[in-house]
Amino acid sequence: xxxxxxxxxxxxxxxxxxxAYSPNVARAQRxxxxxxxxxxxxxxxxxxxxxxxxxxxxxxSYLQIxxxxxxxxxxxxxxxxxxxxxxxxYIALIRPRVxxxxxxxxxxxxxxxxxxxxxxxxxxxxxxxxxxxxxxVPPDIESWTGRSTSEILAAFxxxxxxxxxxxxxxxxxxxxxxxxxxxxxxxxxxxxxxYRSAFVSEGLDTRYSSIGRNNRGDYPSFGRLMMExxxxxxxxxxxxxxxxxxxxxxxxxxxxxxxxxxxxxxxxALKAIGQYATERxxxxxxxxxxxxxxxxxxxxxxxxFCTSVSTLSLDDTSVFIRSGRGANGxxxxxxxxxxxxxxxxxxxxxxxxx
Length: 354
Known about the structure:
The protein is α/β, with parallel strands linked by helices. About 40% of the residues lie in helices and about 10% in strands. It has helices at about 25-30, 35-45, 65-70, 85-95, 105-120, 125-130, 150-160, 165-180, 185-200, 220-225, 240-255, 270-280, 290-300, 300-310, and strands spanning about 1-10, 80, 100-105, 255-260, 285-290, 320-325, 345.
């Protein structure tokens, strides 16, 4: 899948970042539920359908934009992204103040609640991996903070996996999820268990799959995505770099990674996220769309999406992280590569067309 980043030319917005709420906004904030669960409820809309479980990404070259993000100066602010945990690596690169995981599938929120429960329970990358895949956590787990990725993977491979370790991981995760205060239906709990069971049964070979479409045998595994590199050959995913992991973990502990249910071209969620950011004087630094754009165009919803984007506070470093299929998608490609990354200008989305 071809990943492309387009820099927006957004001089028309040019608003400076405010460092404090206005008195009126501060008073308004005190009248609403500002808890993690309250923010989710306030920003979300009714869920929809997509023909994929999206348990992990299928975009192998997702990290090749790292140097481009740095060159443009994409940093801080608000991050918005669709899909599962590839977002965590982008969050670690961009270091936003707050991040929203926006997806039409309510099931995506369930997976992010699972991830959040693991982050707040895990002191380091090894513990996170062991809990995600239902393995036993050793007594000396704290000594593994900062160890090399090869050492961590070796310890992971040797860790015990049986019904008792799986049950213990499930119990701790569910206890954490209950504390988040998000109301869950029986179906929600079933989906959390389904995601958890998939990771346990497939291990590091867990892969993306879709419904009613061909599932390519060369889709990258969880283990491969963990070890992917940027264009300079650096392993900088959130699970290959301790500093990256710890930044995301701190964001999760402080409720700054917020899953939101909504269509990017819907009537509420994206605009509500924009209002949330504006009230706090924050610009949107990056919007990871994956290949959602092709479905917006297919369903004739591009203009509606752009209408919502035009309400976001942006600046001249705000970017869309986008993807396209094929070696020549979006104007360029690399022979013998399943995907690549380029940086190009994009006219403001508010005009409703590229």
